[in-house]
Amino acid sequence: MLIPLALIAFWPSPVDQPVSGQLTAALHFLHRHGVPGWFNYKFLEAAANVVLFVPLGFVGRLAFPNKRWWQIGAFGLLVSGCIELGQLMFLHERFASSSDIVTNTLGAVIGALVAGLSAQAQERPAAFRQRASKKQ
After folding, report:
1. In whole angstroms, what is the distance from residue 55 CA to residue 1 CA?
2. What's the mean pLDDT in 98-127?
3. Tens digit of pLDDT for each residue in 23-72?
4. Rounded CA gap, 113 and 63, in Å?
5. pTM for this prediction
6. 3-state secondary structure of 38
7. Could you please report the per-residue DSSP string of 76-91?
8. What is d(CA 39, CA 13) in angstroms, rounded to the nearest whole number?
């Protein structure tokens, strides 16, 4: 999981650069066919940043089940901050952005919350089985 994240984060040029023309054409097509204007490149980039960090939060919560969602979110903030600092210092074709830090952190928090909800859902049937066996 960390290898694809590192490859995307530290690729020397923006990872969407090879498909930017096709992406622009697809967005123009969608806008001509009724998709609202807010669904634009900036929105897609932000959504991609969120999605990119959901697995980090999910796996982080599973690896450290005693940590709270905000602690996993703080870890996502730290990882994202290191990535953006690395881009700023070493990758001149990439752009460090505070909005990337916010969206990446949001993705980690969402992943942690989903993992927590999943763990709770798995615990409930076990609790019901224990209660049912005590009644018998």
Report:
1. 8
2. 91
3. 999 999 999 999 999 999 999 999 999 999 999 999 999 999 999 999 99
4. 13
5. 0.83
6. coil
7. HHHHHHHHHHHHHHH-
8. 24
